[in-house]
Structure formats: C-alpha cells, structure tokens
Amino acid sequence: AKAVVIDAAKGVTKTVIRFAPRESAREIASTVKRADELKITETMGEWVRVDDGEHAGWVKKGDLKNE
C-alpha cells in the first residue's frame, strides 16, 4: 500500500497524512502541498511528521512530492 493517491478527476496527486508513523495507522487527512511547503516537525526512521497548516501527522519520506 502506498500513501499517495491520485485524484483522477482533477489530475492532482495527494499525499496521505497518517496518525502515527506506520503503514497501518489511520489516515487523518491528505494534502496537495509539495515537500517544500510543509513544515517538518520531527523524524522517525523513514517517516517525517509534517504540518500543512491545517493538519499534522506522519508521512513516509519517499512519499513527499517535490513538484
């Protein structure tokens, strides 16, 4: 399972924000913001805790989009 979802209707890539730093954690929100637009507040292994201004939670580093 990947934490990236494609919104086919708009062609927008969304990054899923999770409650905890693990794949099985509940999804709490999604964001369309790029990595440089997110505030990274902490890291844990391959996970980062991000804040997009509306939601805060965990994202895998590899799932952050840079474009």
Q: Can you characterise this structure?
A:
This protein is mainly beta and 67 residues long. The protein is built from no helices and six strands. The protein starts with a strand and ends in a 7-residue tail after the last strand. The model has no long low-confidence stretch (mean pLDDT 84).
Outline the biggest β-sheet.
3 strands, antiparallel
Q: Mean pLDDT, rounded to whole units?
A: 84
- Are there runs of 5+ residues with pLDDT below 50, and where? none
Helix coverage percent of residues? under 10%
User: Which strand-content bin applies to the residues?
Assistant: over 45%
Helices and strands: which structural class?
mainly beta
> Would you report the number of β strands?
6
Short description:
With 67 residues, the protein is mostly beta strands. The chain has strands at residues 4-7, 12-18, 27-31, 39-44, 47-51, 56-60.
Q: SSE layout and pairings?
A:
Layout: E1 4-7, E2 12-18, E3 27-31, E4 39-44, E5 47-51, E6 56-60
Antiparallel strand pairs: 1-2, 2-3, 4-5, 5-6
List keywords for this structure.
67 residues; three-stranded antiparallel beta sheet; mainly beta
